[in-house]
Specification:
alpha/beta, Rossmann fold, Alpha-Beta Plaits, 2 domains, eight-stranded mixed β-sheet, 8 helices, about 35% helix, disordered N terminus
Amino acid sequence: MTTTSPFTGFSIPGVTHFWRQVRNAPSRFLGLDYDGTLAPFAIEPMQAKPLSGIADLLRDLAASSQTEVAILTGRPAHEVVTLLGTPPLTIVGSHGYEWWTADGDKRIRQPTPEQQHGLTVIRDALQRSGRTLKQEVKLASVAVHTRGMDPVVAVSMEQEIVAEWGSWALRHGLEWRWFNGGVEVRCRGWNKGDALVGLLDRQPRDVLAVYIGDDDTDEDAFAVLRKRGFGIKVGDNGKPTAARAHLGDGLAVVEFLRTWLAVTEST
């Protein structure tokens, strides 16, 4: 079933009367991933600039008071601030381990000593391995980026690393997760889904909650919303997803945000 906006004709495949529900909701929450959702992927992470119009739309949404908006990303929070130009909204970075509010409050969730030890050992070992690796060390994870490499070589290297360090990671409270453009070892026990629950706990009980993301790491957030709102996945790689609907690409996300702003401002 497809529902079409009375404002622009923009439709949301898979959801019945979506824009009517948004318009009639007593309160609204909108969560957004960054890479692959608000910005196209780039080989160099800080070259992943937001799509045209995104920064202005986020500011307009935040200023309208009709929607609580938050960005949930695997990136460090300071990178999102730099790329978006200090948006006036909550940014949850490092898969939920950093929480920066619009009013300037900054909270950090630290890995356990065991997890930190595991991350340090894996990081140091990968650096000594002789492989040509591009590592990114974050608060609660270590990412190995393979975007731009030959795809066959990239997959082989990722699988080799996970096989070599998979059991070590599990013994130290860590897990390996693939993302678009690499693989990451990160702390278990806290993820985007947990962070989303924390954000929703601050909202009214009757809030209409929507989360948009594109990657495997966003599935944790989609799962939270199966009975509490709408998960919307950007793109469709054919893999099973807990999201209830899809948007084709980043340009569709831009149009979605424009429509959301028009619908909520008309109430």
